[in-house]
Amino acid sequence: MIEAGQTAPDFALPDQHGAIHRLSDHRGSPAVVYFYPKDDTPGCTKEACSFRDNWQALQDAGIAVFGISADDVESHRSFADKHNLPFPILSDPEMNTIQAYGAWGMKNMYGKKFESILRYTFVIDGDGTVIKVFKRPRTEIHAEEVLVAV
């Protein structure tokens, strides 16, 4: 897993509209890359809406935000439209970026163990260095946690 102090892996992934986004295109300003398990599920929706509700403060701070899951572009479009998400939701169905960041692993829910995308967030400075990792973000106030970290 990528830890604070390490260089964030670059990516080139499509968003909910099919446009390709690269982390390297945002050098010079901070970025947040957050991984989530599934579109339109309760925790994932709360987390995305936290970023939406704090969008102006994030923009004022110059922070690029990228949500990433393995869902396809069409699912992301529906999710983003339904919740008025103003930032790119990136599709990684082959999970190359998810695995590069170490956001894939074992989960335990209701006594059942299974592999899944882990809800991790990486705060990255303008040089591409990870400055903070959230391994268990509080979904409803996660954007506020990020703003404090930056």
Topology:
Elements: E1 12-14, E2 20-22, E3 31-35, H1 42-53, H2 55-60, E4 64-69, H3 73-83, E5 89-91, H4 96-100, E6 104-109, E7 112-117, E8 121-124, E9 130-134, H5 142-149
Parallel strand pairs: 3-4, 4-5
Antiparallel strand pairs: 1-2, 3-8, 6-7, 8-9
Give a description of the structure.
The chain is of the alpha/beta class and 150 residues long. It has one domain (12-149): Glutaredoxin. Helices cover 28% and strands 27% of the residues. The protein is built from 5 helices and 9 strands. The protein has helices at 42-53, 55-60, 73-83, 96-100, 142-149; strands at residues 12-14, 20-22, 31-35, 64-69, 89-91, 104-109, 112-117, 121-124, 130-134. Strands 5-4-3-8-9 form a 5-stranded mixed sheet. The protein has a two-stranded antiparallel ribbon with strand order 1-2. Strands 6-7 form a two-stranded antiparallel sheet. Strand 4 (64-69), helix 3 and strand 5 (89-91) form a beta-alpha-beta unit.
